[in-house]
Amino acid sequence: MHVSMATSAGTAGRANEDFAGAVPAAVVLLDGAGIPGTESICSHGVAWYTHRLGGTLLGRLSRDDGRDLATILGEAIDEIAAEHRGTCDITHPASPQATVALVRAHRGRLDHLLLADSFLVFDRIGGGPQVVTDEREVAARRVCSTPLAGVPVGTPEYDRVRASCAEALRARRNQPGGYWIAKDDPHAAEEAVTGSRPLRDLDGVALLSNGASRVVSPYGLTDWPGVLDLLADGGPAAVLRRVRQAEAGSVGPAAPVPDDATVVHWTRLPHSVGGEL
Question: What pTM does this model have?
Answer without folding.
Answer: 0.92
